[in-house]
Amino acid sequence: MNVLPAAGTVLGEAVRAALLAAGFGVFVLAIERWYQRSHPPVEWTRKTLHVGFGVVAAALPWIITSHWTLLVLGMFIVVPLQVARRRGWLPSLFDVERPSMGELYFPLGVYLLFVAASGQRVFYIISLVTLVLCDAFAAVLGDSYGRYRYRVHREQRSLEGSAVFFLAAFLGTHIPLLLFTPIDRGASVMISLQIALLVTSFEAISPGGSDNLVLPIGAYYLLVKLTPNSSAAIGLQLAAQLAILIAMLVLAKRTRFLTFSGALAAHLVLYSAFSLGGPWWIVAPVLALAFLLALDRAHHGRLASAAEGHDVRTIFYTAIVATLWLFADNAFATLVPEAGPLSKGHPFHVLFVGALAAALAVIASWSFANMPRFRRRAPFVRSAAALLLAFVGVAWPGLWALRGEQMTRELGVATLICLFALLADMGLRRLLPRVDFGQDGLRRLALGVLLATLVVLPLHLWWQGLSTRDLLP
What we know:
The protein has helices at about 10-40, 40-60, 60-65, 65-85, 90-95, 100-115, 120-130, 135-145, 160-180, 185-205, 210-225, 230-255, 260-275, 285-300, 310-335, 350-370, 370-375, 380-405, 410-430, 440-465, and strands spanning about 150, 155-160. It is mainly α. Strands 1-2 form a two-stranded antiparallel sheet.
């Protein structure tokens, strides 16, 4: 590298990016040649590219200095690959049965990690290990030796592959932490176990190659959050997560309300509430899950096949808005410097609870429209009943668990979120006339709940003595 122009200069960055792009092109053509001559499984050729690209990506902080260089380099890689996909070129990469956008998510995940982990090279390497080596081992070994399989949307995974991923993630986290950081051995073991279990769960339920984006960012976030804690504190978190995971798996097995992937997704939502918010934050999602189970039993599983149960998609669209507000509350409290009033008192807890209650209200209104007892009632009556169920079942106990009796304004905010979510769903149903209980209906549900929380947000901040400008760091 000494013969190249200095890193950080325009010429130095351009030369390094050109060399990386050329090397990537040669590597892709070599893999295609291998595929045309020897006809190995496409999964092998894809994962070979995955690992090769990942090894180069791991060295990027020592090669280039500007994220703009990486952004331009990523465009020079992604655009030709998308052209090749559309024209049927490079079957060694794209001749797969399952739909995947991994070649797009991978560069995006690396770029975001490069930006976020600036100055944290050990964390950067660990996060890439979970993306590159763990995913490759799990895919190849799971495909070859996996006997116990489960479905994630339209894809199939294996328990053996997930076990390989867990072991590789544990070692890939523990060894670098032990060798290159001052973290003691006990804390390193507990942190590695916690991260391995979490990223394995994320990988198991990420369809369409989205794990290439979720895993590196998620692993880095977990490293930042967990490494300052003691081994005892992490042990408590790990025990809580295992308890929640076991409870969801038992629920899935006994009721068939959830598939295996649905149970993993539900456990991640519940554990996120427990870990990022606190023990009392788990009340609202547990109650929402309980009432969704009751509604599902009342009208025979209209959101999903009763034989299959609800998978990761149902959990994702039902809880995504609430989870975003959970992360916002935690980020302002722990990650955003000088967050001011937004770092105290959990100002987004009411939006978290309100989003869960609103999702329940919308689903309840769908359910009531298909129950013989409510079907002939006026839509206003069904909506009022759904709103009452969400208020009594989720909003009131979810807010009371954290705030006690001092929650009059918060109850008003949560009720408004539920009301606006019902109105938004009615409006979106006219604009987007699709099947209520399919994936399109679930997307509409998430969009309606998001719009409702954003509409109520200024009023909530005003009651807190804040403004929307306080959301800016």
